[in-house]
Amino acid sequence: MRDAINFESFKQTLTKCPKMIHISCHGDFDPIMNEFYLQFEELGTGVVDKFNQSRLNDLMGGSENDPNNQIQIAFISACYSE
Predict the structure, then answer these.
(1) What is each CA distance from 55 to 1, 10, 49, 58, in whole angstroms?
(2) Going residue by residue through the chain (82 aa), what tens digit of pLDDT does each one get?
(3) Residue 55: enclosing H or E segment and its boundaries?
(4) Distance between CA 39 and CA 61 in Å, rounded?
(5) Which DSSP category does 53 fall into?
(6) Which of these, 9, 35, 34, 42, lies nearest to 23 by C-alpha position?
(7) What are the start-end ranges of the E strands in 1-82?
């Protein structure tokens, strides 16, 4: 599946229980929050949605109780994704 990424499309993708995901997007560093983030796009507005690690963990955290729903490989390609 290949779609433009935003929070809603990513959440929808995770409901399909993929074993592997590849995220390719812009990324940056927020000096105020002192953290890196992926630049998703707010649905319908085009405004940057700072998708940080804690949001990613919260979104994907529900699968740890069910090993059949766990993502085996996550490949992230973004500026500053280090």
Answers:
(1) 22, 12, 11, 5
(2) 555 678 888 888 888 888 898 888 889 999 999 999 999 888 778 788 898 888 888 887 655 556 666 788 888 888 876 6
(3) helix 53-60
(4) 20
(5) H
(6) 9
(7) 20-30, 35-41, 48-52, 73-78
51: tokens are 């998708």
Encoded tokens for 54: 């804690």
Residue with tokens 């809603």: 8
Residue found under tokens 């995770």: 14
- The CA-atom distances, in angstroms, between 61 and each of 15, 53, 65, 76, 81 are 13, 12, 9, 18, 20
